[in-house]
Amino acid sequence: MQIFEKKNALINCLSILKQKNKQIGFVPTMGALHNGHLSLVEESNKNNDISVVTIFVNPTQFNKEEDLKKYPKTLENDLKLLKSVQCDIVFIPTVEEIYSTKVVSKTYSFDGIEHQMEGRFRDGHFDGVATIVQAFLEIVKPNRAYFGEKDYQQLQVVKKLAEKENLSVKVIGCPIFRENDGLAMSSRNTRLSENQRNASPLIYQTLKNASNLINTTKIANIYAFVKDEFDNNELLELEYFTIAEQESLQEVSTLQIGKKYRAFIAVNAGNVRLIDNIFLPINK
Ligand code: AMP
Predict the structure, then answer these.
(1) What's phi and psi for 158, nearest 5 deg?
(2) Which candidate, 3, 62, 26, 31, places its Cα nearest to that of 190?
(3) Dist. CA 175 → ligand 1 center (Å)
(4) Fold annotation for 2-174
(5) Where are the domains of the chain?
(6) In terms of DSSP H, where are the helices of 65-193?
(7) 220 Cα–ligand 1 center, Å
(8) Of all protein residues, whose CA lies closest to atom 7 belonging to ligand 1?
């Protein structure tokens, strides 16, 4: 496994591999890796000759200084894990290497999907995400890039980014990896207290219950059910629950035949923000 800190050295290495017609798969991460991240690397390994992983905590996608400062860093362990899944190349640049002296986002428009859910609660978040993803895609120029459905709105934003900026990469979504009790794996889970961790399976349980109700219950009543679940919980505070069409991410109040829907949730456990989502199987 080769490790690069400088983009020019990485670009040189990749250009030699591309001359040999090697297919390149790319997995961007912010480190503090877990099995969800590793599943993306394994998916990349299946369909590419070379898998490139970036570890970079991108400052421009954080709207709260505290969240950025407290983001867990476990580099030594991350490298061990990446080696264990036969990752070929790891890129670990400094903020300066990527942003030079101007640590700011570009401004994008993604047909409104950036303003829903996470966009409403995390000002400027998707401009930051798109800025860093575009920067990495232009450095790595991969054939395929892998993103988790855990951050489903981010996946849709990146698909739009590739389309709008004419980036020749196939953006591939990968399923959510969960702990045994259903909690979606996340680097932030390590910041939960024992009590918060014990309470947190309610997030996925509530999504599953919403999914079970979708064919029999009015959407307004599903919203009321979810609100109730969290109203009485002292450890978990509901930030939003949204049922949306899964391409446009527009919130809906009724379901239409032939369209596909997902339920999305964000919950605060103290100052740890957790998100999750689920596909809603409609029997119509
Ligand atoms: P992050 O390090 O949180 O920026 O995540 C890097 C990539 O891993 C993103 O594409 C995430 O959607 C994906 N990812 C994070 N957690 C999971 C998970 N539990 N299952 C699948 N993919 C995940």
Answers:
(1) -70, -35
(2) 31
(3) 10
(4) Rossmann fold (3.40.50)
(5) 2-174, 187-279
(6) 65-69, 75-84, 95-99, 117-121, 125-140, 152-164
(7) 30
(8) 29
Q: How far is the CA of 151 from the centre of ligand 1 (A)?
A: 7
**Cα separations (Å) of 114 from 11, 98, 122, 124?**
30, 23, 10, 9
Q: Which residues line ligand 1 (CB under 6 A)?
A: 29-30, 36-37, 39-40, 147-148, 150-151, 174, 176-177, 184-187
Q: For ligand 1, what atom is nearest to the CA of residue 187?
A: 3
Beta strand spans in 9-126 (E):
24-29, 50-55, 89-91
Provide the whole-model pTM. 0.97
Pocket test for ligand 1, best of 27, 30, 33, 37 (most atoms within 8 A of CB): 37
CATH number of 187-279: 3.30.1300.10
- Residue 29, classed as helix, strand or coil, is strand
Calculate the CA dihedral of residues 25, 28, 200, 226 and round it to 10 degrees. -80
Active site residue 37: yes
pLDDT of residue 212: 97
DSSP string for 200-265: THHHHHHHHHHHHHTTTS-HHHHHHHHHHHHHT-SS-EEEEEEEEETTT--B-SS--TT--EEEEE
Residue whose CA is at the smallest distance from ligand 1 atom 10: 147
**pLDDT tens track for 9-51:** 999 999 999 999 999 999 999 999 999 999 999 999 999 999 9
Name the pLDDT band for 232 (thresholds 50, 70, 90).
confident
Residue nearest to atom 13 of ligand 1 (CA): 148
